[in-house]
Write a structure and sequence with these properties.
This protein is an alpha/beta fold. The chain contains seven helices and ten strands. Helix 1 packs across helix 2 and helix 3 packs across helix 6. InterPro entries: ATPase_NBD, Gcp-like_dom, T6A_TsaB.
Length: 255
């Protein structure tokens, strides 16, 4: 559903995401919105709560003023997903609020839409591919129409050839995400597509999705909060790493 026209009609929402190397915190409140995009990665667990408190202070808002808490559910970095989920879950328990889990790849799609000239009533399909390391991709397909997002293909873990086949089978107008630049010529963009390879403001895109979810009346019990990992195994053996290098035509390092 489209967002209400007046900021005063929007629900008060705190949104957090640490699924990537960037930390995103955003707040919708009277006088806002407020957005913060900062370095994340290994530091996210130590800096997330201080950044949240800073944003609340800027808004002149106390914890009790919050109505909804949203978090980037994943897929993404293993430790990062746990950080945002745990902080959001703890706050929701303490404040007796429901949680809004947000698809972390949809955040990338929404950021790309924000950078483009796509209007509310336009039909626009985008392929989101994020570098999942280990020569794999987190990929998903989304369709923007009538002011809303639809999921054409839910987030999943792909090899490069498998993802290439998905993109060729489903017509899209744009691609977005870190994988297109990370894999270079090994990952060909569908012909005629626009490319949004760098995010403008992950926090702003996250907040737009969170406010929309809150306005639709969505929400889940904090006890049900779980990250979306997609990968149980987070490291490769030496033999597996060598097999990946060989398949890519990369010589093994010198002893």
């Amino acid at each position: 559903m489209p967002l209400p026209a007046s900021p005063s009609l929007l629900p008060c929402v705190l949104a957090l995401d640490t699924a990537t190397e960037r930390l995103a915190v955003a707040l919708q409140a009277p006088g806002g919105p407020w957005h913060l995009d900062a370095e994340g990665g290994a530091a996210a667990s130590a800096t997330l709560l201080p950044q949240v408190k800073s944003l609340l202070a800027q808004a002149g808002l106390g914890w009790q003023g919050l109505q909804h808490i949203a978090y980037g559910q994943g897929p993404g970095a293993f430790t990062g997903l746990r950080t945002a989920c745990a902080v959001a879950q703890g706050l929701a328990y303490g404040l007796h609020l429901r949680l809004l889990p947000i698809d972390s790849l949809l955040i990338v799609a929404e950021d790309a839409r924000g950078q483009s000239d796509v209007v509310a009533d336009e039909s626009w399909a985008v392929a989101v591919a994020m570098d999942a390391r280990m020569d794999e991709i987190y990929g998903a397909l989304y369709h923007w129409q009538a002011g809303c997002w639809q999921v054409l293909r839910a987030p999943a873990l792909y090899t490069l050839p498998a993802w290439q086949a998905v993109c060729l089978a489903q017509p899209v107008q744009a691609v977005a995400g870190s994988a297109w630049a990370a894999f270079g010529e090994r990952l060909r963009r569908p012909e005629g597509t626009d490319a949004w390879l760098h995010e403008s403001s992950r926090a702003a895109a996250l907040l737009r999705l969170a406010v929309q979810a809150a306005a639709r009346g969505e929400g889940s019990d904090p006890a049900e909060a779980l990250p979306l990992y997609l990968r149980d195994k987070v490291a490769q053996t030496t033999a597996e790493r060598e097999a990946v290098r060989a398949a890519a035509g990369v010589p093994a390092p010198s002893p």
